[in-house]
Fold these 4 entries.
Entry 1:
Amino acid sequence: MNEDRLTANVVKKLLNESAGRVSPDIQARLNLAIAKSVQVHAEKHGARGKSKTPITGPINDFLQHISEWFNRPALSIAVSALFIAGAALGVAQFGLENYDARISETADLDAAILSDDLPPDAYLDNGFINYATELQKNNAIPAEDGLEQWMNSLPADFTTSI
């Protein structure tokens, strides 16, 4: 590593000495070549973000103004905060609606249990729940015109309040 550094220093010293002995016409050509390379580099890197056929006119000015306005960090943070707040409100509303739905389902079940002739322990019995579910599947409630006929077709041990 030290040898590389020493070699680099020697080469640098020799180049500096030889640069001092360059004739003026060669120095002018070198300066012109350096200026051209810097110009080409600037054009290449300056045109990287721009389109090859620039749009001119009021539309371009308007789009540049809008683009500059939207590239502000404060605006980006404000828009992000707005989206986060909207998402949080959506989640909260969804939770509240589901909570209200669960409360109304529970209230409906409580009202059915209280208005029914069955004791609440019957609803805790898995056998009774299976029996009632199968009975409902087998005896679907018909339209209003056939309700009397359906009520008469129910088994005698099936009690319900309608």
Note: The mean pLDDT is 76.
Entry 2:
Amino acid sequence: MTRLIVAAGGGGDAVAAAMLHAALYDDESPAVILTYAWDRLLVDPVPGPRYADDFTGLEPLTPAVSKVPAGARPIAPAGSTLPRLAAELPHTVALIDPRHGAEGVVRQLEELVTHLRPTSIDLLDVGGDVLARGDEPTLKSPLADSLALAACGQVNAPIRLLIAGPGLDGELSHDDLRNQLGTLVHTFTAEDTEPVSAILEWHPSEATGMLAAAARGVRGTCEVRDAGLPIPLTDKSPTIHEVGLDEALSRNELARAITSTTTLDEVEALSREICGFSEIDYERNKALWLKQQPPAKLEAESVLAQLDQFEAEAQSRGVTLTTFRHLTEVLSLDGSQRDDLRRLLINSRTAQYAAPLWRIT
């Protein structure tokens, strides 16, 4: 008995897939988690998602789908969290390779359905921006979710779309999504986070980190990367809702437009046309900007002084929580220093650690 869980946005959605399996299917055999290798610039200095040929050590699962084993490695300068994730999860981690657009992802899904004959297929999105129309001013990263939705909508198999942690990606608020959410499937508990608790100590996902924190009872207002929408953690935050796949497709204009694409370049072009931007362009520009920044040193006294200033300003905005990913950027450090920063802060001010978030006091 195999469950197939498609992580719509890659990254933290793959971690949330393990939480989902623990909550709903824990008495069964491990799942296959199909996910992008797209960790953004904090982990991967190369803009955009990684393809199969950006790795060494992948193993064939089907002709078009590769398994990511613990021994796989991204080819420098690329980076990826997937090999470490594969090493720490009991599940099979498989790679969505988006180079051939929606048609390519459809082929990968169809091969997996034929090969695995899964008991169920879930398309999981943390936050809910897969339900965006495409013209929302706060929308920042619709491409991966829309591509996964477009592909799933063409597969001849029953696929359940699940939204976990509505509003937690900081792009659409819970109020924006309220009328789109369907049946409540489950509310995550602290126990559901246990299978990924060690992973959340190092994985940089903000939305899934907030989902886990909310499941553990953490409440407040969280500020994330690029100081987007302040995100409230409430009793509704750790919930999972089912939404009709056809309903999501009828709402998501980008997903409908890219159903016949055969390259990622086509998907990007349509994203620029429909949404007014491509998030990969944003990453390209940000990567160039980061290259021009002088390397910062992580000196405890200086970092703690800067942290005090940031916290005072954040409190004036009504913010009570933040992520270590956001703190890394706020303090002008690079992604390689995130773990050192995290250790410094937790060791210096243990009471402020609201795992895996940082509490502002």
Note: The first helix runs from residue 12 to 24.
Entry 3:
Amino acid sequence: MTLDRPPREHFSTGRRIDIRMSAQDLITIGIFAALYVVIVFAINMLGFLNPAIMLVALAAGIVAGGVPFMLFLTRVRHAGMVVLFAAITSGLMTLTGHPPIGVPLTLLCALFAEIALWFGEYRSPRMSVLAYTAYSLWYCTPLLPIFYARDEYFADPAMQQMGRGYIEQMMDLLSPTVLAVFSASTVLFGLLGGLLGLRMLRKHFEKAGLA
């Protein structure tokens, strides 16, 4: 697949910093944030089966999330839209049980995504894929507390509800090495998700008039 073909009209024009939001921008952000959370959350629910499947589900969620995110980027017209998208999605994820540290770190990932989009003048497929790759780094945050508060993480009442067997499997599996490898792999899965989303845009959504 060639990523650097001539820019398409649906990737907005102009390398400028403009954070003014229209009502349509806010509606678009809300719709795609909700769609992204539903898809990611549904896939991550598979992790309740056992810890090994949880890691697979997290990776699958990164890849699948690239489709709604890349479709969202076709409607991003200026700076700030991805950051607001991140504020909504990270807030919803926190309400579903993700650690609060995920909110500032997701916003930081969104800022890197915004920078990539700005360099691509909001119309570069290549930089859009890079933006999703950067944004996907937020997936390190659900398991991040295991690094700095391992005992508290497994003693949490929500975790205790999973049962002693599940917790023991999780403690055995999620060693610092496994966590480090998974965290590093989010870059690869984010890239795959961005490429998948771009392919879906070109193959299906453009033909349907959705992008």
Note: The CA atoms of residues 150 and 171 lie 9 Å apart.
Entry 4:
Amino acid sequence: MRPGKLCGAAVVVALAATACGSSGEDSGAGTDKAARGSGFPVRIADCKGATTTFASAPRKIVTSNAAALEMLLRLGAGDRVIGTGFPPGKGALPGALGEQARKVPVLGKSVIPKEKLLGSGADLYIDTFASMNIMGGAGDAPTEEEFAAAGIKHLYLASTACAPMARKPQRDLSGVEGDIKRLGAVTGTARRADALVAGMRAKTGKVHKAVGDIAPGKRPSYFFFDYDAGTKQPVAVCRRQVANAVITQAGARNVFDGCDADFKPVSWEDVVAKNPDWIQLGIRNRGDAAADAEAYDEAAAFLKNFPATKGLTAVRNGKFLRIGSARTTIAGVGNADAVEEIAHTIHPGRFKAAR
């Protein structure tokens, strides 16, 4: 997508998201005290310090994709979402969340057409991946002036949209937590946001207790294989990407952590040189479990049969993880679940000992 002009939603002038330079655990520290009590006005600052003020919570929200939609549903603001792009596939969201998501009008199966977005009647557009070039071109996307003329405030999820311009790598989930807290402040659901973040920290805290003492050089090496990005040339998740935080928190070592970007096309020779211990088969939701399973099988079969990769340590030993791309590379509560799943898979003995 086009490079993001703003860094994303950040409450008050100080932007605390990891994607914009902090790697601390207190990414909500910049939240306006009034907003934490669901009070307004709430001021939102971009990476350059320019602010947008919300005098009240938005009533008509459009989300760019399933990730932002899921955040709003979990915050209890789903009834205000009047449309989305990149809707979640069937089964992508559990139970009642999935039922709610299916009721949201789909304005675009991929990127929402410019005219439809500007004419949607929204007062807020939440953009998950404006700067994520890996997602493809955004086409004729609205300018900030056009958003303003249509009466639409435009905010980004900082941990993903701002990753390419980040000053520091993402090695924990503080950037994602910051996104959730800022959306909570903007929508007047700050207490719910705090609860969601607390739930994430409870999960990652247990993982850290079990594997946090493993030195970087002793951690198993890990390659995220984005099968849906194509097999001709692999695409690496680098140090600024959310996936790097997920992998690091899980007690693994991203083989492309040295890459100073969010995503970067690499060669199969580069992957072979890294010779990862584990490979995650990252696929996007196909709409049902059987289709997902088939896609995972296809990704594994490619690695087993491709001359350049069939001799890799992870491939020879069958060390594959079947975890969807979205939970790993896109900000959301599911990032903490991915941390848990990866850690339990690659360090099973550590968790048996903990019990």
Note: Residues 123 and 152 are 4 Å apart (CA to CA).
